[in-house]
Design goal:
Two copies of one chain form a homodimer.
Chain A: E1 4-14, H1 22-28, E2 33-38, H2 42-45, H3 48-58, E3 62-66, H4 75-88, E4 92-97, H5 99-111, E5 133-137, E6 149-154, E7 159-164, E8 172-175, H6 185-203, H7 211-233, H8 238-250, H9 265-277, H10 281-296, H11 301-312, H12 321-338, H13 345-348, H14 355-364, E9 371-372, E10 378-379, H15 380-388
Parallel strand pairs in A: 1-8, 2-3, 2-4, 4-5, 5-8
Antiparallel strand pairs in A: 6-7, 9-10
């Protein structure tokens, strides 16, 4: 295990009706004037936005609103949010929605108190301050409600890039599984895939002797495998949604990723897909991950076999462990298909002709130096080969 | 799953040499004048205390010292610490040691800013404020480095009681596994037992649909089962100590205990043993737990069978699940014996003649109303029967 620091000071309020305490939590963490940031109409139609506003009013907290966040959130709306915060003297940013609304809110919160262009942070500049952030999560997926991360797509070139910093950890996050009971099946499945991807990115490590975090990652994957089919069959299953929601947060607040090298190449490879084709991030990951695994399995067969045995219940082939590793990847592929995810380029709307350009952007775009990934360093050629496995 | 809130804002610095950053962390969390609180000579002899003091001096942080904390920490020293803090205008309490030093430091931190008798907090008064607390952990065991809990023995009657409150969560905790490499085998084994007990107390629940936390508890137990034999054989095994140390924190900061009823009767039953015989808390728990399990198994055979199958690798007996449940308890007993723990009253130095008095104190002492436990409510007679299973 490597040395590490871990700091997750977010206050989590989990369960039914917790959004009715929003005003109280904003006050607790120092907010007087809030920017409410959200996406489309469902937050409005469901009455959630009204409940949140009422809760703020009850505590005498002022607010302004900025809706319109889209999946794969864009830089344009971030600039708009930053301007609004400055003009209205906002001191707290409240995201109501999923990972896109939260990531966009984080970018606004950081940009609002920074003199330069917020995009600097997405090109590697260290984030040292941001307005405090609160979140009301409406889909289990990105884990942004407990993470120090944010991913934004720059409309100037369609680069999708991430920023990270302790200042981006939400002060509080409200997790009410009931808010996810009305989501479309496809969105739920995308969220499940994203959560599992966050676990895989941490699982595939070159660090030795990390049994405690290996076991925790496996625990969360096993939870997803049990609960996912239930919510796909019946999104109104509160208990299954609740288990997934807490797993989604734990999968990405890094409590099970500490002290170990991580990978994240699959996310980079997917980001090029969703930046160009605007496909759902989770759907992209469902196509990318089995391909990434197949291509890289040879670098540590026993780690892939361990995942197959412990998580997918495969029998260990002690003579030919690669058979076990392959069986695990096949099980993952079947699982993604079973929850309605795409399994290849054409189902995703991606085109073979774009492979070389995407591979180049993934490895060189926006300041990168030619390789991505921690478990295996992948160059442009490797990434192109991985895309080809998705055809 | 039940509604819950979870707030674990402790900053964890994990790994080799982290204690050399003590001064920096004290400053970060607002300390100018520190009470260094510790136990016996090992902290001094090992040079740890000097390294800590040097780190404080480098940052210009003032300090006073109070050593002498004993296992099962006593109220007398807490009063002394509170007086010292007030006299010396201390604004930060730093524990260097294990659970006893940390629990005693927490009591001092709360008592120093309270007008009444600190013991009020250990009789149920809500803790709303305390001086900020830092810890430098020297043994993986109590989990107090990440928890909001403290247990103190009142010398007036030898009652061992707990207090809890968010204000008792340490501001920072330094976890350096290298500090545990020189511990005696028996102390290491007691710590391992305590960590596992914290997991069992959470595992045995009446709450349904808690797969995510079930799986996480199982993950940490599986880690202990893998790593414990390694450190018992060779305490200098840094990697095994590191895995145990992080598991010990995760076992008790409640990230895997949220949203579910918990039990804690076994801790109550043990506290009477260590209060009277001054046996090590972990050693007491090793004797208590198999007895508690045997007595209460019938209330939810499937939960005991699940533990046996998932954690101990027992085969499920689908015709007679109670056989599987029993096999799991037998495996636990063998495990405790294998790491050098006692398995009955006489090995613990406990006396049959005291059973009725202890059962009475456990159920009625210090304000309790006749029953203990969450998984099963135990009365005085039940507790006495459980003690008798330990003979």
């Amino acid at each position: 295990m490597e040395n590490f620091t871990f700091y997750s000071p977010t206050y989590f309020a989990f369960g039914k009706d917790q959004e009715n305490n929003t005003g109280k939590y904003v006050r607790r963490f120092g907010g007087n004037k809030v920017l409410i940031h959200y996406g489309g109409g469902s937050v409005v139609r469901s009455g959630l936005l009204d409940r949140v506003k009422n809760s703020l009013k009850e505590e005498g907290v002022g607010f302004v609103e900025l809706g319109g966040v889209k999946p794969n959130p864009r830089s344009g709306l971030v600039y708009e949010g930053i301007d609004l915060c400055r003009k209205e003297k906002v001191d707290f940013v409240l995201a109501v929605g999923g990972g896109s609304a939260i990531d966009s809110a984080k970018a606004i919160a950081a940009g609002a108190v920074y003199d330069g262009d917020f995009w600097d942070y997405y090109q590697g500049k260290v984030i040292t301050k941001a307005l405090p952030i609160g979140t009301i999560l409406t889909i289990s997926a990105a884990g942004s409600e407990g993470s120090p991360d944010s991913v934004i797509t720059n409309e100037n070139g369609m680069y999708k890039r991430g920023a990270s910093g302790e200042a981006l950890r939400p002060a509080f996050s409200i997790l009410n599984p009931a808010l996810t009971q009305t989501l479309p099946q496809f969105q739920i499945a995308c969220g499940i895939t994203d959560i599992m991807a966050h676990l895989f990115e941490r699982y595939f490590t070159t660090t030795k002797e990390v049994e405690v975090t290996d076991r925790m990652i496996e625990a969360l994957l096993l939870t997803m495998i049990k609960e996912a089919p239930r919510v796909i069959q019946d999104p109104a299953d509160y208990q299954a949604q609740a288990n997934i929601m807490w797993a989604g947060m734990m999968a990405h607040n890094n409590s099970c990723g500490v002290g170990r090298a991580q990978d994240w190449a699959s996310h980079d490879i997917e980001h090029e897909l969703s930046a160009i084709y605007d496909c759902a991030h989770g759907a992209g990951l469902a196509v990318v991950f089995p391909a990434w695994m197949t291509y890289n399995m040879k670098h540590d067969i026993n780690r892939f076999a361990k995942l197959a045995v412990r998580v997918w219940g495969c029998q260990m082939d002690f003579e030919q462990p690669e058979n076990t590793a392959k069986a695990g990847i096949a099980a993952l592929k079947r699982f993604f298909i079973s929850i309605g995810m795409p399994s290849n380029f054409s189902e995703l709307g991606a085109k073979e002709a774009d492979i070389e350009e995407m591979a180049k952007k993934a490895c060189y775009g926006d300041g990168r130096k030619g390789t991505i990934g921690g478990f295996v360093k992948l160059n442009e050629n490797d990434v192109a080969n991985i895309y080809r496995l998705m055809l």
